[in-house]
Amino acid sequence: MTSGGKRYLIEAWLRKELQFLVTFHASDRRWQMPFCAALATGLPLLVGAYFGHLDYGLVSSLGGQVFLYSPNTKLSHRMGVLMGCAFGMIASYTLGVLSHFIPVLQVPVLTFIAALVLMMCRFYGIGLPGGLFFIMAAAIGSYSPIPLLQTPLFVGLLAMGALLACLIALFYGFHAVRQRAPEAPRPLPPASFDYTIFDSIVIAAFVSLSLALAQALQLERPYWVPISCLAIIEGQSLRAVWTKQLHRIVGTCLGLVVAWGLLTLPFDTWGVSLLMMALAFIVETLVVRHYGLAVVFITPLSIFLAEAARMGHSSPDALLQARFLDTILGCGVGVIGGLSLHSPRFRKTVGGWLRHLAPPRLRS
Q1: Closest Cα to residue 172, out of 31, 61, 56?
Q2: What DSSP letter does each residue of 140-196 carry, written as one string?
Q3: CA–CA separation, 210 and 334 (whole Å)
Q4: 3 state DSSP class of 27
Q5: φ, ψ for residue 108, nearest 5 deg
Q6: Which pTM does this prediction carry?
Q7: Within 10 A of 124 (CB to CB), how many other CB atoms are there?
Q8: DSSP classification of residue 73
Q9: Closest CA to 51 of 227, 224, 273, 210
Q10: I need a surface site. Which of 89, 130, 254, 360 has the fewest CB within 10 A?
């Protein structure tokens, strides 16, 4: 092939990638849903700011992310899904916090949680954001410096945030079903060994591998690495994995600039709470339209969600640098995991081994 032909192919590939990067998707999501998501995120923060315990509000706000699992179905089905997700979020966070006291168990516990959560999400047809926030709760809890005797307090705070999210979802559901006919629940996917068990175990293995690498490299905030890895590897195809990686890396770079600007502003606890509500509203408005643009705002929101209670005790530059390195490492492991997950040879070899280890009734 001539040099001109190679250059043409490279330019065509770059144009195609740029098209995937800038494509916006149509969405019928109305403003009420992002507004309620912002309430579920921000109301616990406002309560924490009022009582002078923003750290308590942040834990409850993490539980408030349960609202994002609300399906557009009839109210009885919607609330059943949310209550199940609330229980899963509480259980994931509790196990994560408990693993903090035995550091050698942090990676095995996260592996167990990731595998179980992903199996449950696939078996029961839980849609986006899938296992992301369950594993995020477990990872953040695993590296939270909580005294042992305060574990019930922090678990209760997260449970209260999840309960508030369910209450907001109930009132939002009354409004939503009046505005639009509810959708029928999606038919459950076939509970096959490959889809439910094999994929979940492989994803959990790469998520735990990313955390183990973060610990080996002695990263300051290793819990961001498995979160970034999971966000990439859950793509439904190699094209989706690659596109989400580009969106996440580019969006994170721009988001770090936004976060740096916000961190330089003199926000008090009330200002941080209102800022996070605004970011949550923007994210839920954009995420169904353009993932990369949403990541620009997800980055500062996630930083404030995990670090707002310690703002002022560390350098913003060091915080942002660590966040960027975590994202790069997590995305790298996620891409390798995605390539493996979609490789016929890998699936045949590793899948056959796992199927041999599984009980006979689970092999089909």
Answers
A1: 31
A2: HHHT----GGGHHHHHHHHHHHHHHHHHHHHHHHHHHHHHSPPBPPPPPPP--IIII
A3: 8
A4: coil
A5: -60, -40
A6: 0.84
A7: 13
A8: B
A9: 273
A10: 360
Which DSSP string corresponds to 240-259?
Answer: HHHHHHHHHHHHHHHHHHHH
Digitized pLDDT (tens) for each residue of the chain, 364 residues in all: 565 555 655 656 556 656 655 666 666 677 788 899 999 998 999 999 889 888 899 899 999 999 988 888 888 888 898 999 999 999 999 999 999 898 888 899 999 999 999 988 888 888 778 888 899 899 888 888 888 889 999 999 999 999 999 999 999 888 877 777 777 777 776 777 777 888 888 899 999 999 999 888 888 778 888 888 887 776 555 555 556 666 667 777 787 788 888 877 777 888 888 988 999 898 888 877 777 778 788 888 877 776 665 555 556 677 777 777 887 888 888 888 888 887 888 888 887 777 777 666 665 6
Contacts (Cβ under 8 Å, ≥6 apart) of 345: none
Q: Please, are residues 341 and 203 in contact by the beta-carbon 8 Å criterion?
A: yes
| Amino acid, single-letter form, for residue 154 | F
Q: 201 near 93, Cβ under 8 Å?
A: no
Q: Report yes or no: 224 and 320 within 8 Å, Cβ to Cβ.
A: no
Distance CA 23, CA 244 (A): 12
- The per-residue b/e assignment along 127-138, b for 16 or more CB within 10 angstroms, e otherwise, is eebbbbbbbbbb
Q: How many CB atoms lie within 10 A of CB 87?
A: 13
**How many residues are present in the chain?**
364
Picking from 207, 170, 237, the residue whose alpha carbon sits closest to that of residue 333 is 207
> Cα–Cα distances in Å, from 3 out to 12, 16, 271, 272?
14, 20, 56, 54
Whether cis (ω within 30° of 0) applies to the bond prior to 129 is: yes
Half-sphere exposure of 283 (CA within 13 A, CB side): 23
Angstrom distance (rounded) from CA 177 to CA 169: 12
Cα separation, 148 vs 263, whole angstroms: 31
Nearest-angstrom CA–CA distance, 43 and 161: 9
Burial 192-230 (b: 16+ CB within 10 A, else e): eeeebbbbbbbbbbbbbbbbbbbeeeebebbbbbbbbbb
